[in-house]
Design a protein that fits this description.
The complex is a heterodimer of chains A (about 110) and B (about 110). Chain A is mainly beta and about 110 residues long. Chain A contains no helices and 11 strands. In chain A, the strands form 2 sheets. In chain A, strands 2, 4, 5, 6, 9, 10 and 11 form a 7-stranded mixed β-sheet that branches. Chain A has a 4-stranded antiparallel β-sheet with strand order 1-3-8-7, with no helix packed on it. Chain A starts with a strand and ends with a strand. The mean pLDDT of chain A is about 95. Chain B is mainly β. Chain B is built from no helices and 12 strands. Classes of the chains: A mainly beta (about 110), B mainly beta (about 110).
Chain lengths: ~110, ~110
């Protein structure tokens, strides 16, 4: 089954404790991206990757890092989480040929205390 | 910069009634337009998309949307809603220049009453 898998789905952590949210897709997609969803703000892009070893900032990259060492994985790293990073995070992927269809994971709800 | 406005935060509709969700966009060139649906606890699923051609596009689950360039709108419609349509709906605009980023609206939450 084609899917985008995120882990963990739920996480409560404390300010400053480094964490990683993993994302893996099994569709051999070239393009992957991270979004955060906040009430009243919709979804905003954090980072994206056009292919292995190619990443770039989206609209709200501050406080986040990413890496793309393998095609299927695109982890989101919060080096020193802060309460304003409490949010619902989505990983998405697409084939890269611009079909416009992003395939989304089920989301990771992060709370930073 | 591209942007999307969904003026209705929350809409309540009776089961079997018709539905229209509004979406207005701002984009300098011909836009790529999308509607996604998010069911509770789930990720987003593509309902339909407009790239070019026929301005009335059909999607999954009986939804359709009409692109009106003169009004910068891409409203989503369904002639008869079902209880399972209760969800949050997001309109989005995209471009094909490098980053396949979609710019999303703030969403419209749809409640269905019996």
């Amino acid at each position: 089954e084609a899917q985008v898998t995120q882990n963990p789905r739920y996480l409560i952590t404390v300010t400053g404790k480094k964490l990683t949210v993993t994302c893996s897709q099994n569709m051999n997609h070239e393009y992957m991206s991270w979004y955060r969803q906040d009430p009243g703000l919709g979804l905003r892009q954090i980072y994206y990757s056009m292919n292995v070893e190619v990443t770039d900032k989206g609209d709200v990259p501050e406080g986040y890092k990413v890496s793309r060492k393998e095609k299927r994985n695109f982890p989101l790293i919060l080096e020193s989480p802060s309460p304003n990073q409490t949010s619902l995070y989505f990983c998405a992927s697409s084939s890269g040929s611009y079909t416009g269809e992003l395939f989304f994971g089920e989301g990771s709800r992060l709370t930073v205390l | 910069a591209q942007s999307v406005t969904q003026p209705d935060i929350h809409i309540t509709v009776s089961e079997g009634a018709s539905l229209e969700l509004r979406c207005n966009y701002s984009y300098g060139a011909t836009p790529y337009l999308f509607w996604y649906v998010q069911s509770p606890g789930q990720g987003l699923q593509l309902l339909l998309k407009y790239f070019s051609g026929d301005t009335l596009v059909q999607g999954i689950k009986g939804f359709e949307a009409e692109f009106k360039r003169s009004q910068s709108s891409f409203n989503l419609r369904k002639p008869s809603v079902h209880w399972s349509d209760a969800a949050e709906y997001f309109c989005a605009v995209g471009s094909n220049f490098g980053n396949e980023k979609l710019t999303f609206g703030t969403g419209t939450r749809l409640t269905i009453i019996p």
